[in-house]
Design brief:
By secondary structure, this protein is mainly α. 63% of the residues lie in helices and 0% in strands.
Length: 104
Protein backbone atom coordinates (compact mmCIF):
# COMPACT_ATOMS: atom_id res chain seq x y z
CA UNK A 1 0.00 0.00 0.00
CA UNK A 2 2.87 2.33 0.65
CA UNK A 3 3.95 1.99 -2.99
CA UNK A 4 0.51 3.12 -4.16
CA UNK A 5 0.40 6.00 -1.67
CA UNK A 6 3.86 7.25 -2.54
CA UNK A 7 4.00 6.39 -6.24
CA UNK A 8 0.43 7.04 -7.38
CA UNK A 9 -0.98 9.45 -4.83
CA UNK A 10 2.24 11.37 -4.38
CA UNK A 11 2.16 11.22 -0.59
CA UNK A 12 5.29 11.47 1.48
CA UNK A 13 6.24 8.47 3.59
CA UNK A 14 5.45 10.38 6.77
CA UNK A 15 2.06 11.50 5.49
CA UNK A 16 1.17 7.94 4.43
CA UNK A 17 1.94 6.53 7.87
CA UNK A 18 -0.07 9.34 9.52
CA UNK A 19 -3.22 8.31 7.61
CA UNK A 20 -5.80 5.98 9.06
CA UNK A 21 -6.89 3.07 6.82
CA UNK A 22 -10.18 4.88 6.20
CA UNK A 23 -8.41 8.10 5.20
CA UNK A 24 -6.15 6.17 2.82
CA UNK A 25 -9.15 4.41 1.27
CA UNK A 26 -10.93 7.72 0.74
CA UNK A 27 -7.82 9.29 -0.81
CA UNK A 28 -7.52 6.31 -3.16
CA UNK A 29 -11.22 6.58 -4.13
CA UNK A 30 -10.81 10.27 -4.90
CA UNK A 31 -7.70 9.58 -6.96
CA UNK A 32 -9.64 6.98 -8.94
CA UNK A 33 -12.53 9.40 -9.50
CA UNK A 34 -10.10 12.04 -10.74
CA UNK A 35 -8.56 9.58 -13.21
CA UNK A 36 -12.00 8.58 -14.47
CA UNK A 37 -12.96 12.24 -14.88
CA UNK A 38 -9.79 12.96 -16.88
CA UNK A 39 -10.40 9.88 -19.04
CA UNK A 40 -13.96 10.90 -19.86
CA UNK A 41 -12.99 14.53 -20.43
CA UNK A 42 -10.30 13.52 -22.93
CA UNK A 43 -12.69 11.28 -24.87
CA UNK A 44 -15.41 13.94 -24.86
CA UNK A 45 -12.91 16.43 -26.28
CA UNK A 46 -11.81 13.94 -28.94
CA UNK A 47 -15.42 13.31 -29.96
CA UNK A 48 -16.19 17.03 -30.17
CA UNK A 49 -13.08 17.71 -32.24
CA UNK A 50 -13.91 14.82 -34.56
CA UNK A 51 -17.42 16.16 -35.15
CA UNK A 52 -16.04 19.63 -35.86
CA UNK A 53 -13.53 18.24 -38.36
CA UNK A 54 -16.15 16.09 -40.09
CA UNK A 55 -18.65 18.93 -40.31
CA UNK A 56 -16.15 21.01 -42.29
CA UNK A 57 -16.49 18.49 -45.12
CA UNK A 58 -20.26 17.95 -44.94
CA UNK A 59 -23.10 20.04 -46.41
CA UNK A 60 -24.71 22.41 -43.89
CA UNK A 61 -28.03 20.55 -43.89
CA UNK A 62 -26.36 17.18 -43.21
CA UNK A 63 -23.95 18.25 -40.49
CA UNK A 64 -23.81 16.42 -37.19
CA UNK A 65 -25.36 18.60 -34.51
CA UNK A 66 -25.12 16.16 -31.59
CA UNK A 67 -21.72 14.50 -31.07
CA UNK A 68 -23.40 11.51 -29.39
CA UNK A 69 -25.01 10.68 -32.74
CA UNK A 70 -21.55 10.03 -34.15
CA UNK A 71 -19.97 8.23 -31.24
CA UNK A 72 -21.64 6.89 -28.09
CA UNK A 73 -19.78 6.29 -24.87
CA UNK A 74 -20.87 3.96 -22.07
CA UNK A 75 -21.46 6.93 -19.78
CA UNK A 76 -23.77 8.75 -22.21
CA UNK A 77 -27.31 8.88 -20.90
CA UNK A 78 -29.89 7.20 -23.07
CA UNK A 79 -33.14 8.98 -23.73
CA UNK A 80 -35.01 5.76 -24.51
CA UNK A 81 -35.04 4.46 -20.96
CA UNK A 82 -38.53 3.98 -19.55
CA UNK A 83 -39.52 5.19 -16.15
CA UNK A 84 -40.18 2.50 -13.59
CA UNK A 85 -43.88 2.45 -12.71
CA UNK A 86 -44.71 3.18 -9.10
CA UNK A 87 -46.63 0.48 -7.27
CA UNK A 88 -49.68 2.10 -5.69
CA UNK A 89 -51.74 0.50 -2.92
CA UNK A 90 -54.54 -0.26 -5.40
CA UNK A 91 -52.16 -1.96 -7.84
CA UNK A 92 -50.58 -3.93 -5.01
CA UNK A 93 -53.97 -5.16 -3.75
CA UNK A 94 -55.01 -6.14 -7.29
CA UNK A 95 -51.72 -7.99 -7.75
CA UNK A 96 -52.16 -9.84 -4.44
CA UNK A 97 -55.74 -10.78 -5.40
CA UNK A 98 -54.61 -12.23 -8.78
CA UNK A 99 -51.76 -14.05 -7.02
CA UNK A 100 -54.14 -15.62 -4.50
CA UNK A 101 -56.66 -16.57 -7.20
CA UNK A 102 -53.93 -18.53 -9.01
CA UNK A 103 -53.02 -20.28 -5.79
CA UNK A 104 -49.44 -19.11 -5.81
Amino acid sequence: MAAIAIGRLGLSVGHFYDLTPNEFTEALKQYSKNLEHQYRENWERTRTQTVALLNIHIDKNKQIKDPTKLWKFPWDKTTTSKEVPIMTQEKLKAFEKRWQEKGL
